Amino acid sequence: MYELDMIIFSRHSLLKLKQRGVSENSVIKTLKNPDYNTVGYSGRKMAYKKFNSLYLKVIYKKENKNSVVITQYWTKEIK
Predict the structure, then answer these.
(1) What integer pLDDT is reported at residue 3 of this predicted model?
(2) For the stretch 21-57, what's the b/e string if a residue is b when 16 or more beta carbons lie within 10 angstroms of its beta carbon?
(3) Residue 35: inside a domain
(4) Which of 2, 5, 29, 30 is the most buried (most CB within 10 A)?
(5) Number of domains in the chain
(6) What is the band of 17 on the pLDDT scale with cuts at 50, 70, 90?
(7) Looking at the domain assignment, is residue 79 inside a domain?
(8) Tens of pLDDT, residues 25-39
């Protein structure tokens, strides 16, 4: 596992945190210690972590050594 220098939340991501009932702390936990990682559209990275019965899916991109969170949401399964 690599060490993250900084986690940066995009404006869109910050807006969706509140709308979707996700805490910044949950996103940080998901990025620092994911249960599953994969690569998606345009090379964007996806990290999943299970919280109770749902997974938090965090979509982000790497810029230098920083992780820029694009969006996040709850899902029942890893896709």
Answers:
(1) 55
(2) ebeeebbbbbbeebeeeeeeeeeebbbbbeeeeebbb
(3) yes
(4) 30
(5) 1
(6) very high
(7) no
(8) 999 999 999 999 999
